[in-house]
Structure formats: C-alpha cells, structure tokens
Design goal:
Largest sheet: 5 strands, parallel
Strand content: 15-25%
Number of helices: 5
Strand order of the largest sheet: 2-1-3-4-5
Bound molecules: magnesium ion
Low-confidence stretches: none
Number of domains: 1
Distance between the termini: 14 Å
CATH class: Alpha Beta
Radius of gyration: 14 Å
Order of helices and strands: EHEHEHEHEH
Helix content: 40-55%
Structural class: alpha/beta
Mean pLDDT: 92
Length: about 130
Amino acid sequence: MAINILIVDDSGVMRSMIIKTLRMAEIPLGDIHQAGNGQEGLDVLGEQWIDLAIVDINMPVMNGEEMIDRMQQEPEMKGIPVIVVSTEGSKARIERLEHKGAVFIHKPFTAEIVRDTINDILGLGENDES
Ligand SMILES: [Mg+2]
C-alpha cells in the first residue's frame, strides 16, 4: 500500500525536510503533494486522493487550525488523518487540535517519531513479517 501524502507548510525548506524525513522513515510513499497554506491545502484535498495530511499551524492566508476546521465540515475530507507539525508550545492549542482529531508532532522531529506516528495512525507495520 502506497500512501499519498499532502504536506502543508509555508516554508519550502520545511516541506523539503518533511519529505526527506518521510523517505528516511521508510514510509511506503505514493504521491507527495505540497501546499503553502491552508487554502492551497484544501484545494489539493478537493482534487487529489490523499491518505494523510501533514499540516503546519502558522501560515499566511489560512492557518492549519482553520484548515482542519474546514476539513471537518467536508464529508469527503473529515476522515483524512492529520498530523500537525509545529513549534507551537501552547498546551491549550495542542489540546484543541487533538480534540479535533489531529495528532501533534513537535518541531524539530526525528525520523523515528514521524515513522512511529504514521504507522500508528495508518495501522502500518503490524503484519510486516510476510
Ligand atoms: Mg509556518
């Protein structure tokens, strides 16, 4: 199973770092899509089959929290798993995002954390003996 992933971050450097980490984490990657803010992210979600969204919080035009709120309102988008990757330290905000179904990873992150989080969310790596 190859996973199509959408990466939403206003920093191109951070998007590249996340892609590199995904490769190092040996995630079975399908298509990787990128967006520079929440609105662009929603546009991609409306056009592409995405299995997992990795979303920054602080972005211009539309931040990650608003993007997640909009996803919840769209029947075709609300079931898509979301990982929020941010330097955000506010416990209240993290709890609010987790309450909306997102899983939180702090920047900076390691390949192991990214791999374990994705495996958990997508239920991968449970039958990897065959
Ligand atoms: Mg940002």
